[in-house]
Amino acid sequence: MTFTLAQKIVASHSVIPLGESEAAPGRIVNCRLDLVLANDITAPLAIKSFMLMGAKKVFDKNKIALVMDHFTPQKDIASAEQVLISRNFAKEQEIVNYFEGGDAGVEHALLPELGLVGPGDMVIGADSHTCTYGGIGAFATGMGSTDIAAGMALGESWFKIPESIRVSISGQLPAYMSGKDLILWVIGRLGVDGARYKALEFDGPIIEAMSVEGRLTMANMAIEAGAKAGLFAADQKTLEYCRAAKRKSDKEIHADPGALYEEQINLDVSGLEPLVACPHLPENIRPVSELKDLAVNQVIIGSCTNGRISDLREAAKILSHRKVKKGLRCIVLPATPGVYRAALKEGIIETLLEAECIVGPPSCGPCLGGHLGILGAGERALATTNRNFRGRMGSLESEVYLANPAVAAATAVAGVITHPAAL
Amino acid sequence: MKYTGKSLTVGDHIDTDAIIPAIYLVSSDPTELGSHCMDGLDPKWKNKIAPGSSLLVAGRNFGCGSSREHAPVALIGAGIPLVIAHSFARIFYRNAFNMGLVPIEVGDAYSEFHEGDAIEVDMPAGKIINKTTGKSITFPPLPESMRAILEAGGLAAFVRKRLDGKV
Fold this sequence. Notes:
The complex is a heterodimer of chains A (about 425) and B (about 170).
Chain A: H1 5-13, E1 28-32, E2 35-39, H2 43-52, E3 64-67, H3 77-92, E4 97-99, H4 107-113, E5 122-125, E6 139-142, H5 145-154, E7 156-160, E8 164-170, H6 179-190, E9 199-203, H7 205-209, H8 212-220, E10 229-232, H9 236-244, E11 263-268, E12 275-277, E13 285-287, E14 298-302, H10 303-306, H11 309-319, E15 329-333, H12 337-345, H13 348-354, E16 358-359, E17 380-383, E18 399-402, H14 405-414
Parallel strand pairs in A: 2-3, 2-5, 3-4, 5-6, 8-9, 8-11, 9-10, 14-15, 14-17, 15-16, 17-18
Antiparallel strand pairs in A: 1-7, 12-13
Helix pairs in contact in A: 2-5, 6-8, 11-13, 11-14
Chain B: E1 2-9, H1 16-19, H2 30-34, E2 54-58, H3 70-77, E3 82-85, H4 90-99, E4 102-105, E5 118-122, E6 127-130, E7 136-138, H5 144-152, H6 155-163
């Protein structure tokens, strides 16, 4: 067998067994699903479609996850009523993995942390950043609510086996650079539609040395290059991460040597510096030092991209014994209650409060201009989030710059976009 | 099935936050969503729509960004039944079929259509005629199974029809 990771996982879930020659890119395959996900924005539409289809029962009450995370805590009457629809459905269908309130967090940080996804799984979610789980070797992709409704009813969905682009990363990783910078580089290289309909597969010495959280950050933004999935092999580090999430029987998964890729991209990171994506597309990347002295009004540290404990640690290292620039709001949203508790235990929350950050609840909130940190006309933000489309965080006349947590923390201290080494 | 109308044009990488900003995602009602169609691009853009007789022509990667089905629903709600584009973002493309919005991918030929051109789209023939310029282009006709979803009014209605034994 000579399969890419995408071919391998899709073929293993095919409802009809596929021979090696039948698992070629372009083939449409009906696959069994291990998890079907929706959130407070997309679940109500999925439920409406589920009813319209005349479906009565979800295919497996243990394999549906409904996470109320986007406008949580409910920001207004309309968003509260969206949650009500989801809550009633979860109750009626006896859905085990329904999260709202104190057990809820940003879905793509929460589900891996709770062990609800694992290596080799096939996952669909009504959220474009569902591709995050590729960081632990799952084939996971975003779809719309009606596809999710069909998945909830049937436990199956159709997929076109994608071509894959292989990105091999080597060299010496410079200080203050992390997974975020590497994925921004890839998006800059491919453009926002360069991997459209395709899978990205990452490997090389830098990836092998990278933490699982760093890989989740990279997989998360595969969609920003248009990709269907962003895949990483599941290695010993992955298995260790999954065991900590109380999963027991996971196995390593690797692409086969000799698998065919549509394109090979090589990146040597030696000598690079942290990157920033400028308005209004994630492909507009510039080295951080080229943007120095650009004043910002708001810094956001959080989201499904960079709201995990390792991200908060990075930020706290820089904010320790320093203060956020007067007049700038630095909002930190730990992505899950688990991240929040760990940050509290490690003294990170204390450090952030000492630095005069605003520490808020786990929520997607400002990333999509929902709440908890919205920009007015003429305001500029630097965020560890994943999209900088025009108006994404508020006013159509505002701007969003994307960067890693270390750059975000340094920028919060200086009040202008800053390389952490320059503080 | 044929569609006729005047073209409204937009550029490359029109994202789902442009088509329907997240603050309006607290509704799933087509009329309500349609009343904010393209507000993230320009809040006055929707005034150009002649409901039922406007067809959208877009550049590369139309509908990139989030998985929100509200985006095709907002276009339908605003009275736009069909989008011709250089290319579509993957999730949007799938959502368009599921919601009953007709997506036609034509590559570089999208530049044959300008704001205000009178257009006729013949779906079974895979042909688009620009009546203003007299030029026409072809596209691979959609497989019958995909046309059946569009003709039913979307995936949910199609599944329902199938479950009822009507298709």
